[in-house]
Amino acid sequence: MKNEIIFNLIKVHQRIENACKMAGRNSSDVQLLLATKTVPAEKIRIAIEAGETLMGENKMQELRDKNDILKNLPIERHFIGHLQTNKVKDVLKYATCIQSLDRINLADELQKQLQNQNRKLDVFVQVNTSYEESKFGLAPEDVLSFIKKIKTYETLNIKGLMTIGLLDVEKEKMIPSLRLLRTIRDEIYSEGIEGLQDLKLSMGMSQDLELAIAEGSNMVRIGTSIFGNRFLGKEIWNENIAE
């Protein structure tokens, strides 16, 4: 198991390196985040010991259940799933960043809990760039006004934008939903808002890693290509399927 995970990590990093070369980018500009939904903590530990420093969980329960093993390891734990307001207090016990901020009432609850704890939190704004009803995230046309509003929340540090692109289609059809996130970021830049001139783009998974990097991704969220398919009851979970 250990050798397989390490071998897979090497392959993924090589894919990132190759994609960056093709795009004329420096590979140091693209971070790898381990997508660890349903992945046992011991497998995650192997990846951390191999040098990985970022992981993303979709469920509060998994953050909690894996905490005993992971809490003392050098890993940033991002929350990348849909976050209900009644789970905010618990998620904040474990997460160092929320990548799925997509509505004002969630921002309000985060602000409330963070003020109580006298701390700040890094966040990414989630955007539904594929306009799919099955996916969470803001409509692209609503992002700029939302960002301006969130900028007034003193406990939230806006670090970037996140999306799940259109998947399981021909590559040519995947590109627009990825490119749109970069376009939205550039529109934000054009507003000249203080503190919002270095936004990261979190996009790209096992299926569309290369396309995402070509379109400007700074963080790819990879699970299946590292840990393999995960079984949930009678079904195989695939990271590329939206919640």
Structure description:
- By secondary structure, the chain is of the alpha/beta class.
- It has one domain (2-237): TIM Barrel.
- Helices cover 40% and strands 18% of the residues.
- It has helices spanning 2-23, 41-49, 60-65, 67-70, 88-91, 104-117, 143-150, 171-190, 209-214, 224-227; strands spanning 31-35, 54-57, 76-79, 97-101, 121-126, 156-162, 200-202, 219-222, 230-232, 235-237.
- The strands form two sheets. An eight-stranded parallel β-sheet has the order 7-6-5-4-3-2-1-8. It has a two-stranded antiparallel sheet with strand order 9-10.
- Helix 8 links the parallel strand 6 and strand 7.
- The relative contact order is 0.15.
- The modification N6-(pyridoxal phosphate)lysine is found at residue 37.
Kindly list the characteristics that best describe this protein.
243 residues; alpha/beta; TIM Barrel; 8-stranded parallel β-sheet; two-stranded antiparallel ribbon; 40% helix; 18% strand; globular; disordered C terminus; PyrdxlP_homeostasis
CATH class: Alpha Beta
* Number of self-contained structural domains: 1
CATH topology: TIM Barrel
Low confidence ranges: 233-243
CATH-defined superfamily: Alanine racemase
Question: What is the helix content?
Answer: 25-40%
Q: In this structure, how is the largest beta sheet organized?
A: 8 strands, parallel
The residue-averaged pLDDT reads 94
Distance between the first and last residues' Cα: 28 Å
Number of helices: 10
Radius of gyration: 17 Å
What kind of assembly state do the chains in view correspond to? single chain
Question: Strands of the biggest beta sheet: in what spatial order?
Answer: 7-6-5-4-3-2-1-8
| Element order: H for helix, E for strand | HEHEHHEHEHEHEHEHEHEE
User: Based on the structure given, which CATH architecture is correct?
Assistant: Alpha-Beta Barrel
The computed structural class is alpha/beta
Q: Overall 3D geometry?
A: globular
The proportion of residues in beta strands is 15-25%
Annotation, overall tally of beta strands: 10
